[in-house]
Amino acid sequence: MKGRKLLMIPGPIEFEPAVMQAVGMATTSHVAPDFIESFGHSLEMMREVWMAPSGQPFIMAGTGTLAMDMAGSNLVEPGDTALVVSTGYFGVRYAELLKRYGAEITLLTAPAGEVVSPQEIEAELKRRQYKVMTFTHVDTSTAVRVDPEPLGRLGEKYGVLTILDGVCSVAGEEIRQDEWKIDVVLTASQKAVGVPPGLALMVVSERAMQAWRERKSPAGSYYCDWSHWLPVMKAYEERRPAYFGTPAVNLVCGLEVSLGLILKEGMEERFRRHKRIGKMFRETMKSLELKMIPVSDDVSANTLSAILYPGGVKAADFMRSISTSDVILAGGLLPELKDKYFRVGHMGAVTAGDILVTAASVERALKECGYVTG
Ligand code: PMP
After folding, report:
1. Which of 70, 85, 168, 201 to mutate to test the pocket of ligand 1 (most atoms within 8 A of CB)?
2. Domain of 221, in residue numbers
3. In angstroms, rounded to a whole number, what is the distance separating the alpha carbons of residues 193 and 170?
4. Is 70 inside a domain boundary?
5. Which of 78, 113, 279, 345 sits CB 3.0–4.6 Å from 295 for a disulfide?
């Protein structure tokens, strides 16, 4: 190893050296011309990465939860109806968050490892008129991947604003925001976007911006209110200085480099590479006769995997053994299954070599815990 361990958790991830170099440069003024250029250029590149040529991008200092908060607080008013489609921990978080802004929530929850079918969702949309619907592309607690396309189209058909939590998917899993008619696609920097933690990112459709303009009351969060931030985003894109809150200058410089690398790889190739890597990792786990939380390959994320401990292996023993290896992995997150599984992130700059090192470390740790295959 290179004097340090390989970070294979579902965010933060291993970052490209060029990104770290940009983040480590001397901090400049947030209204310096070269910084305005980096910010404006990043906004433009986000439209390409999100595949949302007509969308309004936002770059904020904050985490993925702030991105969820920004979409929620701007699009929901007290008494609005919200349908939350949950495939794990982060779906439940969205329901709690929207409740704070006075939404009447209906929660459709899939059993762990499964998705809520589009048919079930459509039946609910027929039953009641909703203002917004949220769904998680990849729930990081279960490694379940939802197909966002039919849900975006259902939102359009029933006049419901759709919010995709893409924190564990944007720039890894396939997303075509405009084509799939998804109103908000949000994420955070530390995952497949490939920048250290601290940026909340999203692209918003014109339909959602219009719904926000038609609000009867101001957004419930002072910090998140788009009336503060929209003029700043527009100014930076027009290469003019503007201020509401100080941007995370160094992280934005890293973002410009990372988005450039992502576009250089090309979105189609990036989606294909994540599919390849995801499948490769799942195959290595299957070869160790291990089972995953997602019930099938069709609903398995390509950005991370959630692997069940085989009989007899205890979470604490496995994590202790892994801590002496060359890789860093994550434990379980879903409260009801927390000690039954572990998680491996494989997104962004990940290579096939990283997958092999990780699989070998998992095999060794399981062996130390007494697990024998075959
Ligand atoms: N949604 C999903 C799907 C996530 O994976 C995460 C982070 N693991 C979040 C939301 C919240 O992001 P953050 O931790 O950056 O606030």
Report:
1. 168
2. 17-264
3. 7
4. yes
5. 113
Q: Whose CA is nearest to atom 12 of ligand 1?
A: 64
The rounded distance, in Å, linking the Cα atoms of 184 and 295 is 28
From 264, 285, 311, the end of a domain falls on 264
Please give the model's pTM, rounded to 2 decimal places: 0.98
The β-bridge relationship of strands 184-188 and 161-165 is parallel
Q: What is the model's pLDDT at position 4?
A: 87
Atom of ligand 1 nearest to the CA of 138: 3
* CATH at residue 162: 3.40.640.10
Exposed, middle or buried: residue 210 (CB in 10 Å: 0-12, 13-18, 19+)? exposed
* Residue 280 is assigned to a structural domain of this protein: yes
Q: What's 291's domain CATH number?
A: 3.90.1150.10
- In order, the DSSP letters of 33-52 are HHHHHHHHHHHHHHHHHHT-
Give me the amino acid identity at 318. Answer: F
Cα of 165 vs centre of ligand 1, distance in Å, is: 8
- CA distance linking residue 234 with residue 8, whole number of Å: 36
pLDDT at 1 over 70: no
The DSSP bridge partners found for residue 197 are none
In terms of domains, do 22 and 36 share one? yes
- Indicate if 260 and 270 belong to the same structural domain: no
225-250 mean pLDDT: 98
Q: Is 139 in the pocket of ligand 1 (CB under 6 A)?
A: yes
Q: How far is the CA of 257 from the centre of ligand 1 (A)?
A: 22
Expressed in angstroms and rounded, the spacing between residue 373 Cα and the centre of ligand 1 is: 34
Helix (H) / strand (E) containing 307: strand 304-308
Q: Which residues are CB-contacts of 369 (< 8 A; sequence separation ≥ 6)?
A: 312, 313, 314, 317, 318, 321
pLDDT band, residue 248 (cuts 50/70/90): very high
Q: In terms of DSSP bridges, do strands 327-328 and 6-7 run parallel, antiparallel, or are they unpaired? A: parallel
Q: Which residues pair with 304 in a beta bridge?
A: 345
Q: Quick one: tokens of 61? A: 């200092």
User: What is the dihedral sign for C-alpha 182, 184, 190, 193?
Assistant: positive
Please report the beta strands in the chain, taking only residues with DSSP state E, as ranges in sequence order. Answer: 6-7, 56-61, 81-86, 104-109, 132-136, 138-139, 144-145, 161-165, 184-188, 199-204, 304-308, 327-328, 330-331, 341-345
